[in-house]
Amino acid sequence: MRASPVVAGVVLAVACRGRPLPNGSASSSARSVSSSALPQPPPSSAAARAFYGPHFSKRPYPPDVTALGRLLFFDPALSASGRQACASCHDPKFAYGPPDARSVELGGPELDQPGLRAVPSLRYLDKVPRFSEHFFDEDLNDSVDQGPTGGHTWDGRADTLHDQARAPLTSPFEMANTSMEAVVAKVEHAAYAERFRAVFGADVFDEAERATNAVLLALEVFQQSPTDFYPFTSRYDAYLRRKGELDARETRGLALFDDPRKGNCAHCHPSQGHHGKFPIFSDFGYVALGVPRNQELVKNRDPTFYDLGLCGPLRTDLSAHEEYCGEFRAPTLRNVAVRRTFFHNGLFHSLKDVLGFYASRDTTPARWYRGAHERPPYDDLPRELRSNVNQEPPFGRKPGEAPALTPSEIDDVIAFLKTLDDADVAPRAK
Ligand code: HEC
Ligand code: HEC
Question: 235-418, what's its fold?
Fold first, then answer.
């Protein structure tokens, strides 16, 4: 929630977290424009999107499509190595996030090609709006332009789960098929090929495009299955339903999470739902947090390489927008405590370090950055782009000042974050 409250049509204290001015003060990309003045994002009805594309000779029955999608998601035979399924990286025991503490997972035909980014959880993604450079949140205040929001992956370059499923199947450092035709050929020879014909029609494999669509649709529809992907079974959900309590430490943690002068976490990871909807703990907006460079990533051995998120190089359509460089999409914090790798580059491996970074990025930069004497020190951005880094609380303090959160307050926030684990996820290894 970047938008500031509006009273009688006046935007109060507009503070967009997105784009600080070069002098470090917050600029106003959260402009007070009328929502009718700018193009609106297209309506994103999942149903409308799902049946877009070549028609099937049989109208598929959704539960059957879900069941096929589940088979595909767990089938390692769909990869070039024969050993990697979607579930290898997106493990249901870890809320469809990474199964281990690696910064990035390995893929490719020999399973030796490192990726560039940490594996996100696939839970609660049905709430991600389509990518838009100008987002207006109808639930909050639809007259404020919140700037870039939504889309799939850390830089929002895939618009739908349908588009997104194509990428891992053919990415050379993931499942590494040479084409979608190669994927379709595997499905056609899988034990469940007959079920595909029964669901989509006997001719489903006759045309590569139709078969590709069936595969992507099945993966998309599976990822919308409520019990698997948005169960809302955390202790915090029980608390919101007034069916459970938070203990004293968790209650303090929630207060620190919400407090604009302390964690200020809810500013970007909202903890309250609206209109009876449960909170997802992300507004899906884009921010440059100045996460330190991860020297372990193979790509980062090249000192001229930078993963700049929205402005590239993986995403290519916004490369002219320097003001977006370094921005990544805020992830959901549901099930975050079961992760063992954090942020887009997988630099951190414990919530203590993540919270320590939020609290003391600017007060003790030497703890986080090589070359910390540089001003500003954000070492995973070329110098001329470092002014893009967000300076709102908990950030923006001066070196030597007290951090935004004390060690005991950090423990309280972590205790609260643990209440966001769904009932079925693996308890985090101690
Ligand atoms: C080798 C590990 C790996 C495999 C295998 C893999 N993924 Fe991913 N997945 C990732 C990574 C890494 C990202 C983040 C990519 C980025 O931001 O550029 C991602 C992102 C996603 C996203 C976007 C999530 C979001 O937050 O918007 C979806 C959806 C997804 N994967 C689905 C799948 C499906 C479906 C499959 C199987 C067809 C699959 N993945 C296979 C590693 C993997
Ligand atoms: C100004 C917006 C903003 C604020 C304030 C903020 N976050 Fe974030 N958060 C983000 C963004 C954006 C990312 C992803 C950044 C990246 O990977 O480059 C992120 C990532 C995270 C992650 C890593 C999740 C993952 O899956 O890797 C955690 C944990 C987290 N935030 C917790 C918090 C907590 C706790 C607070 C309060 C102390 C907080 N955030 C405050 C925007 C924010």
Answer: Cytochrome Bc1 Complex; Chain D, domain 2 (1.10.760)
**pTM, 2 dp:** 0.89
What DSSP element (H or E) covers 107?
A: strand 106-107
Predicted confidence (pLDDT) at residue 143 exceeds the cutoff of 90: no
Ligand 1 pocket mutation, candidates 75, 79, 88, 89, criterion most atoms within 8 A of CB? 89
Q: Could you tell me the distance, in angstroms and rounded to a whole number, from the CA of residue 165 to the centre of ligand 1?
A: 8
Tokens 């007070």 correspond to what residue? 32
Residue 428 binned pLDDT confidence (cut-offs 50, 70, 90): low
54 or 20: whose pLDDT is higher?
54
Residues with CB under 6 A from ligand 1: 84, 86, 88-90, 105, 107, 115, 117, 119-120, 122, 125, 152-155, 161, 164-165, 168-169, 174-175, 219, 314
- Angstrom CA distances, 191 to 59, 85, 121, 334, stand at 22, 16, 28, 35
Tell me the per-residue pLDDT of 290-317, one tens digit each, with 9 for 90 and over: 999 999 999 999 999 999 999 999 999 9
Q: Please indicate whether the domains covering 46-229 and 235-418 agree at the CATH topology level.
A: yes
For residues 96-121, average pLDDT: 96
| Three-class SS state of 258 | helix
Superfamily of chain region 46-229: Cytochrome c-like domain (1.10.760.10)
For all residues of the chain together, what is the average pLDDT? 87
286 three-class SS:
strand
pLDDT score recorded for residue 9: 29
CA dist 93 and 106 (Å) reads 19
Cis peptide before 303 (omega within 30 of 0): no
Q: Point out the ligand 2 atom lying closest to the alpha carbon of residue 309.
A: 18
Six-digit token string for 245: 């309590």
- pLDDT mean over 235-256: 97
Q: Ligand 1 centroid to 41 CA: how many Å?
A: 24
Instruction: Write the single-letter amino acid at 19.
Output: R
Examine the pLDDT at 351 and tell me if it is beyond 50: yes
CA of 345 to the centre of ligand 1 (A): 14
Q: Where are the domains of the chain?
A: 46-229, 235-418
